[in-house]
Structures are given as C-alpha cells and as structure tokens.
Amino acid sequence: MTAPYPRLDERLRMVDLQIAARGIYDPRVLAAMREVPRHLFVPPPYDRDAYADAPLPIGSGQTISQPYIVALMTELLHPKSSDKVLEIGAGSGYQAAILSQLVRSVVTVERIGTVAAQARSNLAAVHAENVEIVEGDGTLGYPHSAPYSGILVTAATPEIPDPLLAQLMDEGRLVAPVGSRSVQELVVVERHGSHYREERHGDVRFVPLIGEYGWREE
Ligand code: SAH
User: Fold this and answer.
1) Nearest CA owner, ligand 1 atom 4
2) Is 139 in the pocket of ligand 1 (CB under 6 A)?
3) Residue 3 has what pLDDT?
4) Which residue, judged by its Cα, is nearest atom 18 of ligand 1?
5) What string of DSSP letters covers the chain?
6) Ligand 1 near 207 CB (within 6 A)
7) Quick one: pLDDT at residue 217?
8) SS3 letters for 20-34?
C-alpha cells in the first residue's frame, strides 16, 4: 500500500457529506472517490476548491463535474473489475481516473487537443496506467477497441449517438445526459441483444457534446 495522496481529510469529508449522504452506496465507488486526488485534476486557482460540492472550470470553456455526479454516473454504470469502459469527454481525466480503479481498462475520447493533453498529464501523475486517451469526435465512439461493457458520456447530447449504442456489448450499460443544451436527464441504457432498455435518473447540467451525432459548434 502506498501512502494516500495529500488532502485526504478533505476527500473523506467530501465522500461522507456530498456522496454517501446522498445515497451512493457502492463501496467500491466510495473507495475510489476517497482515493483519487481530485485536486490534481483541477488547475489553479480552482484547485483550492477541488473538494467543494460543485463543478469547476478546467480551461477551454470546459468543466470538471460535481463530485456527486461523478459518483452517481459511476455507480449507475455498475462497474466490474473485468470491464472495458469507454468514456466520451475526457475533460480533466478525473472521471477516467475513478473508473481506472474499478475496471480493467478505460478508453476516454476528447475532442479538444489541449484538454486531451492536460488529461494525459493528470492521469500520468496518478499512475492511471490502464487508461488510453484518444483525441477525436467521441460521438463516433472508438470502434478500434469496441465492443465495451460500459459507456459513459460526460457531455450533454440531444440523443444517444447511434455509434455508441452499436459499440455497447450485450448486457452492457451506457450512461449519458440527454436533453437540451441547458438541461438534461441522466439516461441509463442496458443492452439486451437488439433491445435497449432505458431508465431515467433526474436532471443534470453538462457542457455540450459537439460532433457528428451531437450538437453543432456555435
Ligand atoms: N469527464 C470530464 C468532464 C467532462 S466535460 C472530467 O472528469 O473532468 C465534457 C468534455 O467533453 C469537454 O472536455 C469537451 O471538450 C468534451 N467533448 C465535447 N464534445 C465531445 C466529442 N464529440 N468527443 C469527445 N469529447 C467531447
């Protein structure tokens, strides 16, 4: 066991007060949220507030999600240690770092080059060696490593991109914020052969997913 990263007290409080208190119960998810040093994924000066109950700016007009939302989406994915997960919207790399503790491998796609480079260096700093960062339009998925046992979309989409549904393994789960540019609902899709069962989990707000099967750039 290596020593925990600094600011452990703040992380433990974050998990107790913002995450467990709101009903996230998967012990593996809670352990990952206690372990991964969120402050290393937030650029200054906002790193001071890295354990606050809020999304924060990460540059290029993008944001790192609120810790509770990261925990909720991760729990809804039902991650298993044998899973191969695809994330769309690497952003800071924090969500990918959480997943990297819970599954076998993670591919995360990011459309903005400078953001992808930042995610790469943040993930290297926490030795998340089972994460691959790909630069490109994630609305097309990443067919090269498909199919995936789980797919997490961390940007707002008008509808779930067809290529992602096609790249989901049988019995796999996909979690995505679906709706307008200003407000979305968290949708969970579970694939059963050619049937896709859908559940909804409340309102969320994400930056837009921009690409061929998402929104157009404004
Ligand atoms: N998961 C991130 C937060 C995501 S913010 C984290 O843990 O920090 C949403 C990200 O999605 C932004 O970085 C944005 O540039 C990216 N994005 C938007 N459209 C995309 C697309 N079509 N493909 C890949 N990434 C996209």
Assistant:
1) 91
2) yes
3) 75
4) 209
5) -PPPPS-HHHHHHHIIIIIGGGT---HHHHHHHHHS-GGGGS-TTGGGGTTSSS-EEEETTEEEPPHHHHHHHHHHT---TT-EEEEE--TTSHHHHHHHTTSSEEEEEESSHHHHHHHHHHHHHTT-TTEEEEES-GGG--GGG--EEEEEE-SBBSS--HHHHHTEEEEEEEEEEEE-SS-EEEEEEEEETTEEEEEEEEEE--PBPBSTTSBPP-
6) yes
7) 87
8) HHHCCCCHHHHHHHH
CA-nearest residue for atom 26, ligand 1, is 89
pTM of the model: 0.97
CB distance 112 to ligand 1 below 6 Å: yes
Please report the domains of the chain, with CATH numbers, ordered by start residue.
8-204 (3.40.50.150)
For ligand 1, is residue 209 a contact (CB within 6 Å)?
Answer: yes
Please give the number of the atom of ligand 1 that sits closest to the Cα of 210: 19
pLDDT mean by block of 10 residues, the chain; 218 residues: 86 98 98 98 97 96 96 98 98 98 98 98 97 98 98 98 98 98 97 97 96 93
| Residues 56, 26 contacting (CB under 8 angstroms) | no
d(CA 17, CA 120): 30
pLDDT reported for residue 202: 94
Supply 64's token pair: 């790192």
